[in-house]
Automatic annotation (TrEMBL), chains A, B:
Gene3D superfamilies: lambda repressor-like DNA-binding domains (1.10.260.40)
Record's protein name: HTH cro/C1-type domain-containing protein
Source organism: Flavobacterium chungangense
Domain spans labelled HTH cro/C1-type: 16-70
GO molecular function: DNA binding; DNA-binding transcription factor activity
Membrane-crossing segments per the record: none
Alphabetized UniProt keyword annotations: DNA-binding, Transcription, Transcription regulation
Coiled coil (UniProt feature): none
SMART domains found in the cross-reference section: HTH_XRE (SM00530)
Xref: Pfam families: HTH_3
PROSITE patterns, sorted: HTH_CROC1
InterPro entries: Cro/C1-type_HTH, Lambda_DNA-bd_dom_sf, TransReg_Diox_bact_type
PANTHER family in alphabetical order: HTH-TYPE TRANSCRIPTIONAL REGULATOR, HTH-TYPE TRANSCRIPTIONAL REGULATOR SUTR
Length: 76, 76
């Protein structure tokens, strides 16, 4: 069954937020580590933007996980 | 160790091409299934563009894999 793009980025945002909070990082901490703005982190977590693969890699590096782990969540 | 964004998208392109060829699809077939152009498929496979998460989801749907599988390759 095809996955909805919109649903996927909503779940991605929730998953990024969960990993960030588990690591004890604020949105500002993550933003600083990625070289993006705190506003952009918030918009990714709220699925307001369709981010790129390179930004995913920066987020993964900052969260100390592999990029594929950012996409590893139950598909609803 | 941090992953290079550029190296990552090169490996992603190679991985997408491998899955596409394994499924016996041409670039044009994949493009048609994703609603993108054949040129865009070629540019993703050659890492000439930094694609978005939504496009990854469309490619995953067309290749009948989960999005996380597109990012699942050895990191060199």
């Amino acid at each position: 069954m095809d996955i909805s793009e919109d649903t996927f980025i909503v779940n991605l945002g929730i998953h990024v937020r969960q990993i960030r909070e588990k690591k004890g990082l604020s949105q500002q901490d993550l933003a600083d580590d990625c070289g993006i703005t705190q506003n952009q982190v918030g918009r990714i977590e709220r699925a307001e933007i369709n981010t790129t693969v390179k930004t995913l890699v920066r987020i993964a590096n900052a969260l100390d996980v592999e990029p594929k782990e950012l996409l590893d969540f139950p598909l609803k």
